[in-house]
Amino acid sequence: MSYYIPIICGSTRRDRQSIKVARFVLKKLQERKGVETELLDLLAYNFPIMEERLHRRDDPPPGLKEFGGKIGRADSFIIVTPEYNNGYPGVLKNALDYLLPEYERKPVGIVTVSAGGFGGINCLAQLRLVMIGAGAVPIPENLSVSRVHDSFKDDGSYDTAYDKRAAGFLDEVLWFTEAIADKKAKK
Prior knowledge:
Strand order of the largest sheet: 4-2-5-6-7
Structural class: alpha/beta
Number of domains: 1
CATH topology: Rossmann fold
Number of helices: 7
Mean pLDDT: 96
Number of strands: 7
Order of helices and strands: EEHEEHHEHEHEHH
């Protein structure tokens, strides 16, 4: 069986560092057999402030139907987000709020990125609560990246300790993806 697991890059900030981590996770996920994935970069979508959820609109902003369709057909998804001021970016909340039925009983893996030494644990807790409220299933495992400027370089090199951390995280994403897909198939 093949699973579709897109990765949302949750920042549009200038000189954003989380895009390097999102590309790393994408590469690691592409190495897995039976997985189709792609990067859904919020910078490319550039959604306006949400006025109404996608399923209640007949005039969605450009790209929203495509984005919603990809999350809707996903077996699970991964969010890569920086931590800004102890929370996650407003642009990510805005994009997530456009959708609702698309998340129902869908596993979500969360990757947090910070410039400091705590790896985004504050935004992780907040984002888990939001995803639970939306009907998704945040997996217990996460991937936290501390000191992103030191850990992931502009030339594509990175601290190879993240290979093992990413492998464990992606193992858990796939476990929950398979378990929930199996349960849905038996309905």
